[in-house]
UniProtKB/TrEMBL annotation:
PANTHER family in UniProt: GAMMA-GLUTAMYLTRANSPEPTIDASE (AFU_ORTHOLOGUE AFUA_4G13580)
Organism per entry: Sphingobacterium siyangense
GO molecular function terms listed in the Swiss-Prot or TrEMBL record: transferase activity
Key word RNA-binding present: no
Short name of any one Pfam family annotated for the protein: G_glu_transpept
InterPro entries to which the protein is assigned, alphabetical: GGT-like_enzyme, GGT_lsub, GGT_ssub_C, Ntn_hydrolases_N
Name of this chain's protein: Gamma-glutamyltransferase
Length: 651
C-alpha cells in the first residue's frame, strides 16, 4: 500500500512538472491512439487509408499517399466525388514552409444573381446540375502530385482504379444511396450508376455487394493513358501528369462532362473548364502561445479559427477549466464574433471587393472585439465589426451594415440545424432540453441523425522526411448528379454563394468566382517544425470543432486521440453556409447551443440562466482526424474521432 501511494505521488509530481493536467492522464479513449516512426495515413474510410498505406509501402512520400487517399475517397463517394473541390495545406520540409492549394471550382457561365432569382431562388439550389461549380479535385490532385509528389499518376490512381472496377460497398454509402434514390431517379446517369436493383424495394447496392462503376473506371483509365502517352513521347514526369490534367479539362473527358451537364440542365461550358486552374497560395497564420497556426485564405471559413484564437488571447482559459460553464460561454461568444465577421466579410480574394483580412486578424482588433463580451450573458445580436481602421482605411460598408442590422433579426427559437445534410456522420441523437425538467428522457431527432449519417471527409498524411499534408475535400456528395458517361458526380458548392449583397457583399455569385466555403484544413508549427496537422468534416461546425481540438491539446494537454474524442460545443448563432433555399432557413439562431449529453446538470442549468437554448448530442467531437509530431521522440501520433468510419494506419 505504501509503495502504491508513493507511485501515485510520483505520478502526480510528474504531471505537475510536465504541465499536463489531470484531465489528460485520466481521460480514456474508445479508439486507441496511432503511433508511427516512418509514416502516418488517416482518412474517412478504412479502404481509403489502406490506399495511402500502399503508396507509403511503395516508397512514396506523404503527398503521394494523400493523393491516393483522395482518389480512393472520391471513388467511394465518402462523401464526395471526383467532380468536387479540394482544399489542402502542404508542409515542404526542404523549404521549411507551409504551402496552400486552392482547387475550388468557380461559378459557371450564366450563374448570375438575375438567373437564379428568375427561377425563384433566394440562394442557389442545393442539388442537381444548377448547384455545380466547375470540378476542382482532378486538377488539384494532379497539381499536388506533379509538383510535390514522387510517384506517377498511374501508381497513385491504381487503388482507386481497382475500386472503380468493383469494391465491396460499405453499409453507410449503400444506405445513403437508398435514402436519396427518389432524387437520384431525376438524373439518368446517376440512376444508371447507383440504382443497381431498380424496381425492387431496395434499389441501391447492398452492404458488402461488389459495386462496379464502369464509367468512372473508363475516365480514370483515360487519365492514366494520357500520362503514359506523354511519357512515351519523351515528356518528363510532371508534364506527363499535367497531360492527364489537360485531358480532363480540355479533352474528351471535358466534352462528355459538359454534354452530360447541359443535357440535364447545367450551365458549365467547355470554356469554363479550360479557363479554371488550381492556385498555389500563401496561407494565413497567427501565433497562439508559441504555436503558429495555418489556415487557407478567406475563400474558406478558415480565418474564423484564426480570429477566434486572437480573441482568446484575452482570456485565461486554463483557469476557467475544460468545459466549465464560463469556458463554454467564452468559447461561444468568441466564435460568434468571429463568425459574424465571416458571414459579412469573407469571399473570393481574386475578385473585388477585397476582404480586409489583415484588419480582421489584427491583435488590436481582436482585443477591441473581446472587450465587447458580456461574461455573464449571451449576446443574441452579435454583429460584424469594423476591421478597416486596423488597416488604416475607412469602411465603405458602414451604411450597408446599418441596413443589414435593421433587415435581419436572428431567430430566437430552437432549430436542429447544427450541420447541413451532407456534412456530418455519427450516430448522435439531438433533442431540445425539456423546459419542464432539467433532464428528462430524450427523444431521437431522426432528421438530425440523418444529417449526421453523411459527410465530407478529411485526409491527413505525414512521412519521416518531413512532408505533411492536410486536405478537406468535398462536393459531389450523395445524392449526386453524374455528368453524362464520365461517372463523375458534380459539385453542389454553388449554394454557398449569396444572391443578396446585404448578407455578404464579398460573396455574391458571379461567373468565374469562387464561393466562400466551409472546407478548412489546418496545420500548426512549433519551433519552426511541424506540430499538428488536423481537419474535420461538418459544414459550419468545422472550425468550431477544430478550435476546440487545438485548445484541448495546447491548453489542456490532451493527446490527439483524447482531443479528437473529447466533448465539444457547437454554436448555431451564425448564417448557415449550406442547406435551405430561403433566407429564413439560414439566419442565425440566437443562443442555440449543442452540448454533449453527459454534460453535468449544474453546468446546463448555469448556461440556461445565461440565455442559452440547450440541445444534447451523443457525440460532439467531429469526426476529427489529426497527426501530432512528437518533437522530443521524433515519432508520429495519430488521432481519429470515435464517430463514423474514419481510420488511420501508421508505421
Amino acid at each position: 500500500m505504501k509503495r502504491r501511494s508513493s507511485l501515485l505521488l510520483t505520478t502526480l509530481f510528474g504531471l505537475l512538472i510536465t504541465g499536463l493536467p489531470m484531465l489528460s492522464s485520466a481521460q480514456r479513449t474508445q479508439k486507441p491512439p496511432l503511433h508511427g516512426k516512418h509514416w502516418m495515413a488517416i482518412t474517412g474510410k478504412p479502404l481509403a487509408a489502406t490506399a495511402g498505406a500502399q503508396l507509403f509501402q511503395q516508397g512514396g512520400n506523404a503527398v503521394d499517399a494523400a493523393c491516393a487517399m483522395l482518389a480512393a475517397t472520391c471513388t467511394m463517394w465518402d462523401v464526395l466525388s471526383w467532380g468536387g473541390e479540394t482544399q489542402a495545406l502542404i508542409y515542404h520540409p526542404k523549404l521549411k514552409k507551409v504551402i496552400a492549394i486552392n482547387a475550388l471550382g468557380v461559378a459557371p457561365s450564366g450563374a448570375t444573381v438575375d438567373f437564379f432569382r428568375s427561377k425563384g431562388y433566394e440562394f442557389p439550389p442545393e442539388y442537381g446540375p444548377l448547384a455545380a461549380v466547375t470540378p476542382g479535385t482532378p486538377g488539384g490532385l494532379c497539381y499536388m502530385l506533379a509538383h510535390y509528389g514522387t510517384k506517377s499518376l498511374a501508381e497513385v490512381l491504381a487503388p482507386a482504379l481497382e475500386m472503380a472496377a468493383g469494391y465491396p460497398i460499405d453499409a453507410q454509402t449503400a444506405t445513403s444511396i437508398e435514402r436519396g434514390k427518389e432524387r437520384i431517379k431525376e438524373w439518368p446517369y446517376s440512376k444508371k450508376v447507383f440504382l443497381v436493383h431498380g424496381g425492387k424495394s431496395w434499389e441501391a447496392p447492398e452492404a458488402g455487394e461488389v459495386f462496379v462503376q464502369q464509367d468512372l473506371h473508363k475516365t480514370l483509365s483515360k487519365l492514366i493513358e494520357a500520362e503514359k502517352k506523354a511519357l512515351a513521347a519523351g515528356k518528363d514526369r510532371k508534364a506527363a501528369i499535367m497531360a492527364a490534367y489537360d485531358r480532363f479539362y480540355t479533352g474528351d473527358i471535358a466534352d462528355e462532362f459538359v454534354r452530360g451537364s447541359k443535357e440535364q440542365g447545367g450551365l458549365i461550358t467547355k470554356a469554363d473548364l479550360a479557363n479554371w486552374k488550381p492556385i498555389e497560395e500563401e496561407p494565413l497564420h497567427v501565433n497562439y502561445k508559441g504555436v503558429d497556426v495555418y489556415k487557407l485564405q478567406e475563400w474558406t471559413q478558415g480565418p474564423a479559427m484564426l480570429q477566434s484564437l486572437q480573441l482568446l488571447k484575452n482570456f485565461d482559459l486554463k483557469a476557467m477549466g475544460y468545459n466549465s460553464a464560463p469556458y463554454i460561454h467564452t468559447l461561444y461568444q468568441v466564435m460568434n464574433l468571429a463568425f459574424a465577421d465571416r458571414d459579412f466579410y469573407y469571399g473570393d480574394p481574386y475578385r473585388k471587393p477585397k476582404t480586409p483580412i489583415q484588419g480582421l486578424l489584427h491583435e488590436s482588433y481582436a482585443k477591441a472585439r473581446a472587450a465587447m463580451i458580456d461574461l455573464k450573458q449571451n449576446n443574441p445580436n452579435v454583429l460584424p465589426g469594423d476591421p478597416y481602421p486596423y488597416e488604416g482605411k475607412q469602411n465603405p460598408y458602414l451604411s450597408l451594415l446599418e441596413q443589414r442590422k435593421k433587415e435581419f433579426t436572428p431567430h430566437t427559437e430552437l432549430k436542429n440545424d447544427f450541420v447541413p445534410k451532407h456534412d456530418a456522420r455519427s450516430s448522435s441523437s439531438l433533442t431540445e432540453l425539456p423546459k419542464t425538467a432539467l433532464l428528462a428522457s430524450l427523444t431521437v431527432d431522426s432528421a438530425y441523425v440523418d444529417r449526421l449519417l453523411r459527410g465530407t471527409t478529411s485526409v491527413e498524411a505525414a512521412d519521416e522526411e518531413g512532408w505533411v499534408v492536410s486536405i478537406t475535400p468535398s462536393g459531389g456528395w450523395l445524392p449526386a448528379c453524374i455528368a453524362g458517361n464520365t461517372g463523375v458526380g458534380m459539385s453542389q458548392r454553388l449554394q454557398s454563394f449569396v444572391l443578396d449583397s446585404l448578407i455578404n457583399p464579398f460573396n455574391v455569385v458571379e461567373p468565374g468566382k469562387r464561393p466562400r466555403v466551409t472546407l478548412t484544413p489546418s496545420m500548426a508549427l512549433k519551433n519552426g517544425k511541424p506540430y499538428l496537422s488536423f481537419a474535420v468534416q461538418g459544414g459550419d461546425t468545422q472550425d468550431q470543432n477544430l478550435l476546440q481540438f487545438f485548445l484541448n491539446m495546447v491548453e489542456f494537454g490532451m493527446t490527439p486521440q483524447q482531443a479528437s474524442e473529447a466533448a465539444n460545443i457547437n454554436s448555431n448563432q451564425l448564417w448557415l453556409s449550406l442547406g435551405g433555399t430561403k433566407t429564413d432557413d439560414r439566419k442565425p439562431r440566437s443562443g442555440s447551443l449543442l452540448l454533449d449529453k453527459n454534460t453535468a446538470p449544474e453546468i446546463i442549468e448555469q448556461l440556461k440562466k445565461m440565455g442559452y437554448s440547450i440541445q444534447l448530442g451523443d457525440r460532439t467531437s467531429g469526426p476529427i482526424n489529426a497527426i501530432y509530431f512528437d518533437q522530443q521522440h521524433h515519432t508520429l501520433w495519430g488521432g481519429s474521432s470515435n464517430n463514423g468510419e474514419d481510420y488511420g494506419i501508421g508505421w
